[in-house]
Amino acid sequence: MSRFTNLKPRERLLAFVCAVLVFLLCAHIFLIEPLEQTHSHISTLLAQLQEDNALHESNYTQALHTTNTLQSQQTQVLTNLIQANASLHSMLHEIYTNGYNAFESLDSILTLSQDSRLTLTDIKIANEKLGIISLKGSGTFEDIAQFIYNIEMLQRQYVSLDFVHIALENALEFELLVQDMRI
Fold first, then answer.
1. Neighbours of 12 (CB within 10 A)
2. Over 90: is that where the pLDDT of 49 sits?
3. Residue 61: HSE in the Cβ half-sphere, 13 Å Cα cutoff
4. Which is it for strands 119-127 and 132-138: parallel, antiparallel or unpaired?
5. Angle between helix 106-115 and 141-152 (nearest 10)
6. Which of 1, 41, 66, 158 is most solvent-facing, going by the fewest CB within 10 Å?
7. Between 21 and 91, whose confidence is greater?
8. Cβ–Cβ contacts within 10 Å for residue 106, how many?
9. pTM of the entire structure?
10. Which residues, in sequence order, are bridge partners of residue 164?
11. Per-residue 3-state assignment (H helix, E strand, C coil) for the chain
12. Burial of 174 (0-12, 13-18, 19+ CB in 10 A)
């Protein structure tokens, strides 16, 4: 400190100015620049967050619109199904009141099996309430395919082929489940 007091006033002023400049330089390097970099980084992050927020809001709005559209479509499908169910109930009521025989198509199926040169080994009613007939037999692949095709052509008699299993044991064997759809 004694050196500072020995200086002339002009030299003291110059030393003071240099000390202030060194202090300002150090403050700028160690305080202001890091704060400016942090501010710049935070400003960039804020801009990205605002863009992401706008994008997410847009996606949310679009998803909400899509959900509403799907919900209205599902409501329409449900309404159509309810109407179809009502018409099916009325058809079932008509079938029951007209007294259709659930297995009147069995004669047609047996005729088709004879025409297709198939050997039927087992014919049984698998489920009387649902009108399902189980057929087991054997024959050539072409004859089995023709028989299946002919059964599918019985749609006007409300016959549906529900299950087909073909296996090669001693001969080519098949098992079919045929359902009378009026039941």
1. 13
2. yes
3. 6
4. antiparallel
5. 150
6. 1
7. 21
8. 17
9. 0.42
10. 176
11. CHHHHCCCHHHHHHHHHHHHHHHHHHHHHHHHHHHHHHHHHHHHHHHHHHHHHHHHHHHHHHHHHHHHHHHHHHHHHHHHHHHHHHHHHHHHHHHHHHCCCCCCCHHHHHHHHHHCCCEEEEEEEEECCCCEEEEEEECCHHHHHHHHHHHHHHHHHCEEEEEEEEEECCCEEEEEEEEECCC
12. buried
State how far the Cα of 139 lies from the Cα of 170, in Å rounded to an integer: 11
* Contacts for 2-6: CB closer than 8 Å, 24+ residues apart: none
- Which pLDDT score is estimated for 41? 95
Q: What are phi and psi of 118, to 5 degrees?
A: -100, 150
Q: Calculate the alpha carbon distances from 9 to 5, 23, 42 in Å.
A: 9, 21, 47
Contact, 135 vs 127, CB < 8 A? no
Q: Are strands 132-138 and 159-168 parallel, antiparallel or unpaired?
A: unpaired
Across the strands, what pairs with 136?
122, 175
Task: Give the Cβ contact number of residue 160 at 10 Å.
Answer: 15
